[in-house]
Amino acid sequence: QLDRGCALHTAARGGLSSVSSQDVPAQRPRAIFHTSESDPAKHTEQHEGRLYNIPLEEVKAVFPHGLPHRFQQQIQTFNEARVMVRKPALEILAYLKGSNFAHPAVRYVIYGERGTGKTMTLCHVVHYCSRQGWLVLHVPDAHLWVKNCKELFQSSYNKDRLDQPLQASVWLKNFKTSNERFLQEIKTQKKYMWGKRESTEEGRPLREVVEQGLARVRSASDAVGVVLREIKQQSHRGSFRLLVAVDGVNALWGRTTLSKEDKSPVSPEELTLVHNLRKMVTNDWNGGAIVTTLSQTGSLFKPSSAYTPQELLGKEGFDALDPFVPIPVPNYSPREFESCYGYYLERKWLQHEKAHTEDGKAELQFLSGSNPRQLDRLAGPL
Amino acid sequence: MLPERPGAPPRPRESRARGGRRLRAWLPRIMPVRWSRYNPSYLEPEAKKESYQKPLEELTEEEREHMELKAVRPIKAAPPSLSSSVFSDPMISKFTNMMMKSGNKVLARSLMSQTLEAIKRKQLEKYHKAPENEKETIECNPYIIFHQALKNCQPIIGLSNITKGGKTYQVPVPLTDNRKRFLAMKWLITECRENKHRRTLMPEKLSQELLLAFNNEGPVIKKKHILHKMAEANRAYAHFRWW
Question: pTM for this structure?
Answer without folding.
Answer: 0.84
